[in-house]
Amino acid sequence: MKTNDLVVTSGTFGLMRKVLMENLGQEKAKRFLLRFGKDLGEEKANELLGGPYDLEGMVGEIPRIHIGLGHISNLSREGELFYKDNVLKFSNLHGIWHDSFEVDMQLESFGMSDECSCYILSGFASGMMTKLGREDIFVKEMTCRARGDAHCTYEVKTRSEWESIEGGPLAIFDEQKIVDELEMTYDQLLEKSEVLDKVSDFHSRITESVAKENDVSELAKISSEVLDVTTLITDAGGSIVTKKGDMPSTDTTLLGDKILDPTATVIRDFESGSIMAAPILLNGRTEGYCCFLYTNGKEVPRNDHMYLERLAVAASLCFLNEKVKFETTERMKINFLDRMLYSQFENNSELALHASYIQPKVMPPFQIISLKPIPVTDNEMLTDHYQILINIAKLLKLHDVHGLLTQKDDDILIFLYALKKETHTMDTLSQAMKSITQDFPHLTFKAGVSREFDALDQFSAKVKEAGQAANFPTEAAIVHHADLGILSTLLENIDPEVIAGVAQQELGTLLEPGEKNKELLYTLYVFLKNNQRLEKTMNDLSLSIGGVKYRIGKIEKMLEKDFKDAATTAHLLLMMETLILMGRLSFK
Questions:
Q1: Each residue of 271-294: pLDDT tens digit?
Q2: Which of 110, 396, 419, 538 qualifies as a cystine partner to 401, CB 3.0-4.6 A?
C-alpha cells in the first residue's frame, strides 16, 4: 500500500452515502457516488499500470482488488476478458458481485430500494475498465439484492453499445454534465434569491402603506408599478373597488362565478388573456378579491402568486381598517338618530351642534323610510339588526345616498338627507332590500316611505308616516305614504285615540283577544277588501263557499250590521285599515 492511501471503513462510506441521499436526493446522490467510484477506479488502474504486473497479471488482479478493498466477498465472471495490442479487451462480459457492501448500507439506512443500488461499485468497475481499455467502458448493475433480487449482477459494454441499447446518450458519468448541473443549481438559487429580495421589497412597501392607513387604491398602485401588471381589487360580489392599469372593456363577465374562488388563489383564462385571483379573507369571511390581469399575449409569471397573496393579506388589513372606521362612524350616526327619535335634544341649537359632526352635512330635503322585517315562516329566528344596519349603510354609501339608520322596535328606521333624484333613491332602496334578503333568507322586507320634508321639527310626524305606510296591507314591497289617499288625510287630521275609540265601538267584540275573534275579523277584512265577492274570498281564505257565508252571517249578527249597506261596509273597511296603519291591528 502506498503511503498516501487513505483507508476508509465501510461504515464511513455508509455514513457518507446516507448524508448524500438525505441532502441531495436519490438522483443527485446516485450521480455523485457513480462519479466518485469511477474516479477511484481510474486511480486504482493507474497504480496497476505503474506496478510490477504484466498484462495477463492485470487481468487476474482486478477481482482481487475488488475483494481486497472490501467491496465484495467474491466475483463471478463469464465471457472473455483479455489483453490485445496492449489494450484490455472483452466480449459478452457479465457476472455476479457477491456480498456487495453497498447493499448492506442501503438496507440499514433506507430499507429496500426500488432500483439497483451498488453505485460506487458500478462506478469503480467502470473507471478501471475505462482506464485499462482506453475507451469509455461502463459496468452496469442489472439486478440487485437491495431491491429484492437474488444476486447483484452486472454487464460490461462500451459507451456506444449502451447508447445503442438505451437509445440515447449516457450523461450520468460525464463530468461536464455534473458541472452544468451545479451551474444550473447556482442559477436557480440566484434567481430565487432575487425573487425573494423583490418579494421582500414589495411586502415592505405594501406593509408601510397599510401602516399609513392608506386605502386599497394605494396598494393597487404599488402592485401595478412594481410588477407592471394590471391590478384589480373587488368586493365580495366581484364588483371592482379599485383598478390600476389597462383592462379590456369587452370582457363584461370577467369577474364572474367561474373566475373567483373564495378559498384559494386561481388562474383562469378568458377571451383577452388570463387572470390570477386571490380571496381577501377577514374573520373567516371572503370580503373581496385581489386580481392580476394579463393581456396582449403576456404569460402568467410563475412567481406572481407570491405577490398576489401578500397583496390580499395587506388588502384584508385595509378592509379591516375601513370596517372599523365605517362602523365607528355608523355607531355615532345611530346614536344621533336615536336621540332625535326619542327627543333627547334640549333644543334646536343642541340638535344643530350634534348634526354638524355628521359627514356629509345633514341638510334638506329629508325623508324617512321604515323597513319592516317579515319572517318567511312561523318559526321566527333571531335577527342581527345591527348587521342589517351595517349592510344597508354600506349600500347607501356605495350608491352615494346619504342616510342615518337605527332600530325602532323590530323595524329599521332610515333617515335620508340631502336627497337627490327620487328614482335613484328608490332604486337604491330596492337593491338594499334585495341584498339583505339574500344575506338573511329567513326574512322578507317591506318599506314604508314618508313624504319629503325640509324642517327637522317635522321629524316625529314623518316617522309616523313611514311606519303607517309600512303597515299598509298590500303586496307591494315599497309603499309611499302619499299613496294611501284618504287614509293618510284621516290619520293626519284626527287624533288616533279618537279613531281607536270609534273602531272599538264599531267592531265591538271582534277586537277582543282570542283566536276565534281574530279569525272572524280577518274574514271580514278579506271579504270587504274583495268588494264582498264570495268566490274570491273563498279562494283567499281556502274555505268553502258555505264556510264563508256562515262566518259572514255570524259577524253580521255580532256587529248588528247589514253588509248590503255600502256605507256601512266602507266605514268598517276604513276603520280596520286605519287601525292597521296605526299598528293597532295586525293579522300576522
A1: 778 889 999 998 888 888 999 999
A2: 396
